[in-house]
Structure formats: C-alpha cells, structure tokens
Design goal:
Layout (H helix, E strand, L loop, with lengths): L1 H14 L5 H13 L17 H10 L4 H5 L1 E4 L2 E4 L10 H16 L5 E5 L5 H9 L4 E6 L2 H11 L5 E4 L13 E6 L14 H6 L13 H13 E10 L18 E8 L5 E8 L3
Parallel strand pairs: 3-4, 3-6, 4-5, 6-7
Antiparallel strand pairs: 1-2, 7-9, 8-9
Helix pairs in contact: 1-2, 2-3, 5-6
Length: about 280
Amino acid sequence: MLLAEVAQATQRLADAGVPSPRNDAEELAAFVHGVKRGELHSVKDSDFDARYWEVIARREQREPLQHITGRAYFRYLELQVGPGVFVPRPETESVVGWAIDAVRAMDVVEPLIVDLCTGSGAIALALAQEVPRSRVHAVELSEDALVWTRKNMEGSRVDLRQGNALDAFQDLDGQVDLVVSNPPYIPLSEWEYVAPEARDYDPQLALFSGEDGLDLIRGIERTAHRLLRPGGVVVIEHADTQGGQVPWIFTEERGWADAADHPDLNNRPRFATARKALP
C-alpha cells in the first residue's frame, strides 16, 4: 500500500511544480514512518500513517522539504534546519570540495579557516570534519539563524561568533589560510523569479544583496583581503548568472592573483576563487 501511496503523492507534488517530486514523496514517507528511504517496502499496509498526507499537503504548498523533516543533508553531515535559517543546497557541496583540495594543497599543518555568513554552519562543519587538524572560525549575523547554527555546532570545535561578516575576526587579520563564504547574492530585481521554497521560506537576509546581487560579495572581497595571509585563498559562491562578474571583483589592483571561476556539478558557473598576492 505504501508504495502506491508514494506514487500518488509523487503525482500530486509534480502537479504542484515541486522540482523533485519522487525524491520528496519518498523522503516524507520515510520521515513519517521512521524508516530510511531504502526501507519503505518493509512498511506494512496496516502500519500506514495518515499523517503522510498532511506533510504532502505542506510540500504541495512549496514549504521546503527540510523544514518539514527538520533536517538537511550536506556532504557527510545531517544538519538541523527550520524557519529563520538558509537551507544548504547541493550546489554548495562543490564549493566545499574545492576548498578542501585547496587547503590540502597548501601543506599547512593546522590550516586556519574562516567561514563568513555561516548560516546553518554547513560549510564550517564540513571543513572541520574533513580537514581534521584545521582551526575553523565562523560568523553569522542573524539571531534567528544562530538558533540553528548553535544546535548544529554543539560539541564541535568550530569557533562560532555572532557578527557582521564585513568587520569580523579582526583578531585574525593577516593570518588566515582560507576564507570561504556562501553569501546572499540574488539581485533584488530577481525577486519574482526565485523558487517559492527560497523566496517564501528562506530568510531574506540570506538571499538578496542589492540591485545586482553583488553588494555583499564586494564587501567580503575587502574582508577576505584583510584576513588572509599572503598566498592565502578565498572561495565564494555566487549565482550561476554571475560567473562573468565575480572574478572581476578580485583584481590585481586590489591585491589579488589567479582570480578564476568554477562550475558546479551541473556545469553551471557557481563559485569564484582568488589568491592574495604576495608582497
């Protein structure tokens, strides 16, 4: 019975415009019945829980899957998320992958890493987990987001601070090996084109940044230059329409070298990197 219900739910979600209806129908079935997705076939007909249709109705209204289940998966992490915090996206995993490779290539024993606009803490926690001897610091401005960040970072070795990314960590100036950020980057003019899951549920503070979407990235360029040691690296996520613009913010005149853009797993421009020039 459950598999028939999942098929029906998949169709309902598809009709509502949900981008991944089968995945979401199965995830919600697993969530309600307390099993893993691969174990759905083991749920007996007599154990079907009618609450399944309640959560399907919420997803039909485009409430994010992660808000309904209270969890988001990011690389090797399971994070707690909900209203007030940006839900981490799969595209950001490639940003972290590049950052890990860059840190390992530095051959620094205990690399110093700063995550600006940490949100749920996904990037900082992934780096702390996958670069075992790293010293990871993270900053978040929003008190609403920090409710979730603190839950996710409880027991971790990440140094979490509340503050503005533009003036954070002045005690680390000139010492940092890697600065990483997934900042807000959607142009205000694009509001109506944003997916309902993001536009109606993600915090506005985490989405929009000025008329062209690059206001905070311009500010983070200065912060990164202040924090990094010569030869240190910055990696910053951007919209797939901004690939031609962001590397130009990290110019030689402003003290950068090797500014470049990189694609995500869908081969769309997704993040820019640059190296602080040697003196």
